Amino acid sequence: MRTSDYVRLLALAAIWGASFLFMRIAAPAFGSVNTTFLRVFFALIGLAVMLLLLRTPMQFHGKLKSAMVLGIINSGIPFLMYAIAALWLPAGYSAILNATTPLMGALIGFSFFNEQLTLRKWGGVMLGLIGIALITTTGELSLTGSFITGVLACLIATACYGCAGFLTRRWISERGGLDAKLVAFGSQLGAALFLLPFFGYTMVAGPVVNWAQPEVWASVLAVGFICTALAYLLYFRLIADIGPLRSLTVTFLIPPFGILWGYLVLGETLTGGFVMGGAIVCLAVWLVVSPARVVKPVSPQTER
C-alpha cells in the first residue's frame, strides 16, 4: 500500500467515526428510520450536485443496476439493521459488532470468492477485535430476545459490508471499472429507493416528529453529505486501489475516532483502555493490510 492509501484509510475512518456523533444527535429527535432515509437521501443529492459540478458523464456502461444493488447491500440494509439494533443495544455493543466486518469479509471471501488468507491476516482480524473490546465500554445486558435480535441485526449488517466489497470488485472493477463517483451515486440511488417505503410507513404510522430543530438538521446534513456521500467516494476508490479486504479494515479504526469525536464535541469520557486498545487496533490493521514478505529461493548458481 502507498502512503496515500494509508492517509485515505485514516480519513475515511475519521469521517465515518464522526457519523456516530451526528447520528447520536439526530436519531433520538427524528427517529432511527427517518434519520437513516434522510442520510441516504442527502447523500444522493450531494453526489448528484458533485457530478454536475464536475461535469461527469452519466455513463454507467451497463453497470447502473449493479451499482444500485450494491447500494442496497452496502448501505440500505446495513443502515436499517443498525437502526433496528439501536433500539435495544448500547452504542458500544454496535461498535464492537461493527468491527467484525473484516472478519465477515475474510470468511465470505474465503468461502465464496477464492480469497487467500494467511495466518498473519487471521491473527490481525482477531487482534483487532480484542482492541475494539478494550476501547469500548459497554454495560451488562441480560440475554433477552431483544438483545439477541439487536446482535443478529448488527451481524447481518457486517455480513452485508463484507459481501459488498467483493461484489464491487466482481461487478464493477473486474468488468472494466467505473468512476468511483458514479458507483457511489448509483449505490445511494439504490439505497434510497430501498428505504423509501420504510420512510413512508413511519411518516404515516410512526410517532409525531418535531421537524423544527435546526441543530438536528445540521447533523442530518453532515451525516448525509460528509459521512455518506464523501465517505463512499473514498471507500469505492480504496476498493479499486487496494482491494475489498484491506478496505474493510477501516472498521477497526472507526470506533477510536467515534470515541474521540464524542470526547471533543460532547465531552464524553474516554475509557481506561482507549490508549492501549487504540495501539492494538493500529497493530491489527498493519497485520491485515501489509503485504507478506516473499522469500526468494536461492538459485543453484549462488549456492555454496
Work out the count of structural domains: 1
Q: Can you give the mean pLDDT?
A: 81
For the secondary structure, the number of strands is: 0
Structural class: mainly alpha
Q: Unreliable runs, pLDDT <50, ≥5 residues?
A: 295-304
Estimated radius of gyration: 20 Å
- Let me know the largest β-sheet: none
Shape from CA axes?
A: globular
Number of helices: 12
Q: How much β-strand is present in the residues?
A: under 5%
Span from first to last CA?
36 Å
Helix content: over 70%
Tell me the quaternary state. Answer: single chain
Compressed to H and E, one letter per element, the order equals: HHHHHHHHHHHH
What does this structure look like?
By secondary structure, the protein is mainly alpha-helical. The protein has one domain (3-291). It is built from 12 helices and no strands. The chain has helices at 3-30, 32-53, 64-85, 91-98, 101-112, 119-135, 145-171, 180-205, 214-242, 244-248, 250-266, 274-289. Helix 4 (91-98) runs parallel beside helix 7. The longest helix is centred in the C-terminal third of the chain and has 29 residues, at 214-242. The two termini are 36 Å apart. Residues 295-304 have low confidence and may be disordered.
Question: What's this entry about, in short?
Answer:
This protein is an all-alpha fold. It is 75% helix and 0% strand. The chain has one domain.
Output the keywords.
304 residues, mainly alpha, 12 helices, 75% helix, globular, disordered C terminus
